[in-house]
Design goal:
The protein contains six helices and two strands. With 137 residues, the chain is mainly alpha-helical. It has one domain. Strand 1 and strand 2 form a beta hairpin. The longest helix has 19 residues.
Length: 137
């Protein structure tokens, strides 16, 4: 009985170490994390067989959260400023036509190629470079 409990405990503690890096994390914090997640989404779009992989879902979730946050918060130097909904066209991001998450993910991939220094920075900086800091309207 004790040996069985020890084996179960060792397996429980060792499972996170054995998990693949792409599946181990459930957060996107760096530009590299965002790039990997959006690359998974782009790869799945090219060959959409089976369920959408978890990293691809994280990319979609990050993009949706980014646009939701830009709708209500604007960086103002070192502080953040709460906003109301945009009232004019000048306050909206210029994203040509309706776009899918796959198309938005490809913008992140291109931006990461153009500015590789953003991969070591917080993910929001890569998203801001790809989309701007205004919400789509």
């Amino acid at each position: 009985m004790r040996s069985t409990a020890r084996i179960v405990l060792l397996l429980a503690l060792g499972a996170p170490v054995l998990a693949p890096p792409a599946l181990a994390g459930s957060r996107i914090s760096t530009g590299q994390d965002l790039l990997a997640a959006c690359r998974a989404l782009a790869d799945h779009q090219l060959n959409p067989q089976g369920p959408t992989p978890r990293p691809a879902l994280l990319c979609r979730q990050y993009i949706a959260g980014y646009f939701a946050s830009t709708r209500y918060v604007r960086d103002s130097g070192d502080t953040k400023e709460a906003l109301d909904l945009p009232r004019s066209a000048e306050e909206c991001a210029s994203i040509d036509g309706p776009q899918s998450y796959d198309q938005l993910a490809s913008r992140i991939l291109r931006q990461a190629e153009w500015q590789p220094a953003l991969l070591d920075r917080p993910a929001v900086e890569l998203a801001r470079a790809a989309f701007g800091s205004k919400p789509p309207c």
